């Protein structure tokens, strides 16, 4: 491929990606492989900058479109759209993540408290039980640590 043809394809790629940020589709329309696209990115820093900016702007445009569709559904009274929006945009409606604690020994000695997210907690009694067990583990870990010093 000549340098002129290569530059023409790069320009067309940028144009296509500005409309839809899907590299595979843009490469197919231009007639190059994804491997060629990534080779061009590796070889041409200016191309990288242009592509990254184009993809960023294009993704933002798609995000705006998606949000407008969610808002339209909310206005139309779709409950699932309402819950989706609230769970992703309002802390009060985000699912709570129960935690558990455990201890491990650090490379320099001493304890590290590890908090992990527990899965499968669906009712309030399980959650209360988990909170109590977590509290007991943390007290045990801290108690052990302070007793050793």
Give your account of this protein's structure.
Strands 1-2 form a two-stranded antiparallel sheet. Helix 3 packs across helix 4 and helix 4 (45-75) crosses helix 5 (79-89). The protein has 6 helices and 2 strands. Strand 1 (99-105) and strand 2 form a beta hairpin. The protein is elongated, with a radius of gyration of 26 Å. The termini are far apart. It has 2 domains: 3-87, no CATH class; 96-148, no CATH class. The model has no long low-confidence stretch (mean pLDDT 81). It has helices spanning 3-19, 23-30, 34-43, 45-75, 79-89, 124-148, and strands spanning 99-105, 111-117. By secondary structure, it is mainly alpha-helical.
State the helical fraction.
55-70%
Global outline: elongated
Radius of gyration: 26 Å
Q: What is the number of domains?
A: 2
Q: How do the strands of the widest beta sheet line up side by side? A: 1-2
| Share of residues in strands | 5-15%
Mean pLDDT: 81
Low-confidence stretches: none
Distance between the termini: 71 Å
Class from secondary-structure proportions: mainly alpha
Overall number of strands: 2
Count, helices: 6
What can be said about the biggest beta sheet?
Answer: 2 strands, antiparallel
Return the string of H and E elements. Answer: HHHHHEEH
């Amino acid at each position: 491929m000549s340098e002129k043809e290569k530059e023409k394809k790069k320009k067309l790629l940028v144009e296509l990606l500005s409309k839809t940020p899907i590299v595979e589709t843009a490469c197919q329309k231009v007639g190059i492989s994804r491997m060629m696209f990534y080779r061009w990115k590796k070889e041409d820093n200016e191309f990288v900058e242009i592509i990254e900016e184009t993809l960023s702007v294009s993704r933002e445009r798609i995000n705006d479109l998606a949000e407008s569709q969610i808002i339209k559904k909310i206005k139309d009274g779709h409950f699932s759209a309402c819950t989706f929006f609230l769970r992703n945009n309002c802390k009060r409606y985000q699912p709570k993540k129960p935690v558990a604690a455990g201890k491990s020994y650090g490379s320099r000695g001493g304890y590290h408290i590890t908090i992990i997210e527990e899965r499968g907690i669906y009712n309030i009694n399980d959650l209360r039980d988990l909170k109590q067990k977590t509290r007991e583990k943390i007290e045990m870990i801290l108690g052990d640590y302070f007793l050793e010093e």
